[in-house]
Amino acid sequence: MPVPLLDLRRQYAPLKAQCLAAFEEVADSQSLILGPRTEAFEKSVADYCGVPHAIGCSSGTDAQLVLLMALGVGPGDVVVTTPYTFFATAGCVARLGATPVFVDIDPDTFNIDVRQLAATLNRTANVKAIIPVHLFGQCADMAAILDLGQTHGVPVLEDAAQALGARHPLGHAGALGQAGWLSFYPTKNLGAFGDAGMVICHDDALAAKLRALRNHGMEPRYYHAHLGGNFRIDALQSAILAIKLPHLDTWSAGRRARAAFYRREMERAGLLAHLTLPVETWPDAELHHIYNQFIVRTPQRDALRAHLNARGIGTEIYYPLPLHQQECFAYLGHRAGDFPEAERAARETLALPIFPELTDDEQTEVVATLAEFFATR
Fold first, then answer.
1. Neighbours of 257 (CB within 10 A)
2. Cystine design at 161: which of 183, 288, 316, 329 (Cβ 3.0–4.6 Å)?
3. Would you say residue 2 lies in a domain?
4. Which residues in the chain show pLDDT less than 70?
């Protein structure tokens, strides 16, 4: 049986009538950018995350970009982050003329290694921000990272693009540092019908500046105190996301249940001798990994992927080349071996199908196909 990596149609089907009604309401109103639907959605996300402010943006990338702009990140500044993440994490830094400085990852969680982060901060000047990434839906070690930020007088900005709904002992992903950003790209746990994103923060003055900067730095209308950009969220995306948000915790619980099914069935099939499964740093039911992706690792990754794909099992590689080895960052002067754990993860990791509507039969098929591969090795 073919098994898709993700099937958004299954999520959409029970919400179709509500979504189509929202389309019609937005179309009839002809209030298409920002407006009351966006304000209502922003308040809902702020309440959900436990922060005073949520600022809707045109994408997760634009949310990060406008936040860095609001904090004055630019030429001569350094931003410390991980090389094993989606491109935008470092790309937005470079776009503003600042320098991304990378720290290798913890091999178990794929998140930034706090011991190496401490060493990097001790030897690096002009650090304007620290960006931990809550990769694949699990929070980084925020207690240690926030301590380092306080020690060095550097704000911590959370890349929570894959982690809305994940919780840490200190609180919600994205709400722990000075600010964080979310992505509502359709494949995320809370996905729009196109691109959308959001900044969440605690500080009133920062929130006001972000709201102006996302709208060309304009406040009041046609008066520009700052150079901003067009980073506004559409009313339609806000309306659709407002319909979906009340279902997020149920969907996250579904993803965790699917992950537990994989763990149980893979152990039963003897696959733990061949595959490394995701680690849950905080396995408590209230402090959880939300499994935006279910990532396994094996040195035989490429052959395994070919085997799965040939049998109709959807897979993806997040990410095949770490950022320090990307051609556009060659000017940073890194070489192979500089961040060995990120490079090893790029060679060995594979995403398997995981979404709330995945069935037991489909997961059983995935596990059987994995077992078939390793039985011949």
1. 12
2. 183
3. no
4. none
